[in-house]
Every structure is written in structure tokens, then in C-alpha cells.
Amino acid sequence: MADVVSAEVRSRMMAGIRGKNTKPEMIIRRGLHARGFRYLLHDKRLPGKPDLVFPKHRAVIFVHGCFWHGHGCHLFKWPKTRKEFWRKKIERNRMVDAAALAALLGTNWRIGLVWECALKGREAIPADLLTGKISCWLCSQRKCIELRGTVTK
Fold first, then answer.
1. 19, 69, 127, 135, 139 from 132: Cα distances, Å
2. Which of 2, 8, 13, 35 is the most buried (most CB within 10 A)?
3. pTM confidence score
4. Coil, helix or strand at residue 65
5. Quick check: helix, strand or coil at residue 132?
6. What is the mean pLDDT of residues 92-110?
7. CA–CA separation, 121 and 38 (whole Å)
8. How many CB atoms lie within 10 A of CB 101?
9. Which runs of consecutive H residues, i.e. helices, occur in 46-126?
């Protein structure tokens, strides 16, 4: 199926996608702040520049977009054009993610990973429930948490 917009428009759209302060990230930030958690944003001193850093809890949270990080959910589809370019880009993103997570675990940081599909799409979890799960994890001693969309009936 052909794209519904021209190549120039698609290029401009893709270039405009932000890496910081995304809608899913802002939802989590607002929810955790309302629950009394305070955090640093995008700390360059830590591997992978985590989206949220909780020094008091020695924990970090990454909010990953399902497309950009190649998540195997309903929101991720391999592009039909420039296949080799996108495969290399997404595989590199995955490698960078893995290296950052390993480095953080090696320095005793606790890691939270929230996928875009947890907040968006047909498998989304209500935002207050999601931030509640993150809050419980932050107050626990568990090393890692990964939150993704789930089918709720």
C-alpha cells in the first residue's frame, strides 16, 4: 500500500518526533509527581540518559516508544520502505538500550522500563493504575520492572 503523504511530508513528520518530553513520558511524570515523587530528568551523567531519575530510591525509568525501540507489540510494525535503513536503526537502538541497562545494573541502579503500549493503543493500562504500579516498585527493593500494554477484558 502506498503512503498517504508525499516522501517530503513523511520525512518532515518523522524529523519532528521528539526524544524527550513525549506524551507517554509526561503522563508518567505528572502521575508520579502527584503521588509525591521527585525526580531528575534526562540525567546525562548516567548511561542512556534515563527519562526519570530517582536518586533517593536509586532508581531510573526509561519510557520507550514501541516503534523506535522495536517492541514486539501491536504498535510496532516494520516499515515497508527503506527496510535496511530502519532495520539497522532499530537494531542499533536496541543495542544501545542493552548496553545502558547493563551499565546501570552494574552500578546498582534499579531500572524501570515503561513501553508506549502501556499508555496507548488497544492494550493500554489506565494511567492511574500504571503510576500506582510504578509507585509500588519505587518503594520496594525490586531491581527491575517492565510495564507493557496488556489486554484487559
1. 25, 24, 8, 5, 11
2. 35
3. 0.85
4. coil
5. helix
6. 96
7. 28
8. 19
9. 83-106
Residue 118 φ/ψ, nearest 5 degrees:
-70, -20
State which amino acid sits at residue 2.
Answer: A
- Quote the CATH superfamily of domain 19-147: VSR Endonuclease (3.40.960.10)
The yes-or-no verdict on residue 78 having pLDDT over 60 is yes
Cell of 51: 527519562
Cα–Cα distance, 78 to 129 (Å, whole number): 30
Are the C-beta atoms of 134 and 112 separated by less than 8 Å? yes
Least confident of 29-43, 47-61, 76-90, 104-118: 76-90
* pLDDT per position as a tens digit, 2-40: 567 777 776 676 665 666 778 999 999 999 999 999 999
- Three-state DSSP state, 130: helix
State how far the alpha carbon of 121 is from the alpha carbons of 25, 66, 150, in Å.
15, 11, 10
